[in-house]
Amino acid sequence: MSSSYKLYKSNYSNDDNQYYAKVQHHEVMTEEDIIDMMMLNGSPFSKADTQAIINKYHDTINIAARNGRQVVTRNVRYSFTIKGVFNGPQDQLDTHRHQIVANVLPVPISKKRLKTASP
Q: How distant, in Å, are the alpha carbons of 25, 50, 110 from that of 29?
C-alpha cells in the first residue's frame, strides 16, 4: 500500500486557495513489526539475534549521544541541546533554569532514495 495524503486549508494565508498536505498513515509499525517483516523476507539471523543486534545498536547510539557525540545514521541525526537562558558567560548549567533535550532530526534524503519512495 502506498502513502496517501489529505489537503487542509491553510490558516497562515489570506489566499483562499492555499492548502497544505498531511500524509495519512494507514498503519503504525513497531520495532517488533519490523523485525517480524525482516524474518518473513528471509534473514540469515534468528529473531532473537536480530533483536539483540538492534538493541545493541540503539544502546550504542544512546551512550555516544550521552557522552557528547552527535550521531548521524542513514536516516536520522541524534544529539542533545540545552534549553534555557544563561546569565552571562560564566553562568553554569542549572537544572532549575535549564533543560537538556534530546534532538532527533531527519537527515536529508538523497534524490535517488526519494525516487524509490511511493507517494
A: 10, 17, 23
Residue 109's nearest CA partner among 71, 76, 61 is: 76
Domain total for the chain?
A: 1
Which cell is 88 given?
552571562
Say how far apart CA 28 and CA 23 lie, in whole Å: 13
Here the CATH number for the domain that contains residue 45 is 4.10.520.10
- Please state, in angstroms and rounded to a whole number, the distance separating the CA atoms of residues 77 and 59: 15
pTM of the model: 0.67
The count of residues in the chain is 119
Q: Is residue 119 part of a domain?
A: no
Residue 13 in domain: yes
How far apart, in Å, are the Cα atoms of 54 and each of 2, 48, 89?
26, 10, 41
Model pLDDT for residues 16-70, shown as the tens digit of each residue: 788 989 989 888 999 999 999 999 988 899 999 999 999 999 999 999 988 989 9
